[in-house]
């Protein structure tokens, strides 16, 4: 039976190895310094940086305060061991947006009518739709864009939604409200993209997922604001 201190140190050493592999330069830096550098560019390290720095202090206490080679002065609590092992596993095998958000994405052509989109909103409950011109991505249309179009055309008399093409509505949508990401993007990197937009006073409506993050590729999934809120 391994002691908690042994389990802790094993997980700590594995994390240290993962961090060192992430460093492009200065691979000889200490654990805490690597955490402080990597949290500026790595979403997972940023997410767990405070825990990792605390682990470094505990590791030093265990290693440097041993009363003998086989006996640590203190044994970490079970909850600490569980936490460091969970983080180690997450760093070694980060959860990706695919397959977690692998789903059929409803999209439209710009020549489709607004009536078609409204029918899908009513039937499916979806509110964000990629719009294409043949196979070229033109933008993401949301309820806000539709509302903006309705407000602008409220005094135009009677009209049929069947006669309104999506290419007429799309200019009323907010610009730069969507990003494309690759299927290998970690779920926490996706969360950071939403936070970055919010920090600039902008609203990111969705992340569209393709194999390599290219607009020309087939859609593999979509992440919306409500999806982001459900990520623990």
UniProtKB/TrEMBL annotation:
Coiled coil feature spans: none
PROSITE patterns: CBS
Keyword Repeat: yes
UniProt entry tagged with the keyword rRNA-binding: no
Keywords on record: CBS domain, Repeat
InterPro entries registered for this protein in UniProt: AMPK_gamma/SDS23_families (IPR050511), CBS_dom (IPR000644), CBS_dom_sf (IPR046342)
Domain of life: Bacteria
Alphabetized CDD domains for the sequence: CBS_pair_SF
Every CBS domain range: 101-156, 173-232
Designated name of the protein: CBS domain-containing protein
Organism: Virgibacillus halodenitrificans
């Amino acid at each position: 039976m391994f002691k908690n201190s042994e389990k802790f140190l094993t997980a700590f050493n594995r994390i240290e190895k993962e961090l060192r592999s992430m460093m492009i330069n200065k691979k000889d830096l200490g654990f805490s310094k690597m955490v402080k550098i990597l949290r500026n560019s790595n979403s997972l390290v940023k997410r767990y940086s405070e825990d990792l720095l605390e682990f470094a202090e505990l590791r030093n206490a265990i290693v440097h305060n041993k009363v003998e080679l086989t006996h640590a002065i203190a044994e970490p609590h079970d909850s600490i061991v569980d936490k460091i092992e969970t983080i180690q596993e997450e760093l070694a095998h980060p959860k990706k947006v695919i397959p977690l958000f692998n789903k059929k994405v409803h999209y439209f052509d710009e020549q489709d009518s607004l009536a078609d989109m409204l029918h899908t909103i009513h039937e499916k409950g979806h509110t964000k739709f990629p719009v294409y011109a043949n196979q070229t991505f033109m933008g993401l249309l949301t309820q806000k864009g539709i509302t903006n179009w309705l407000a602008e055309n409220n005094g135009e008399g009677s009209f049929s939604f069947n006669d309104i093409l999506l290419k007429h509505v799309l200019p009323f949508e907010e610009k730069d409200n969507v990003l494309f990401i690759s299927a290998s993007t970690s779920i926490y990197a996706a969360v950071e993209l939403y936070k970055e937009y919010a920090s600039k006073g902008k609203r990111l409506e969705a992340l569209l997922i393709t194999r390599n993050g290219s607009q020309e590729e087939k859609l593999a999934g979509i992440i919306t604001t409500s999806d982001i809120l459900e990520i623990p």
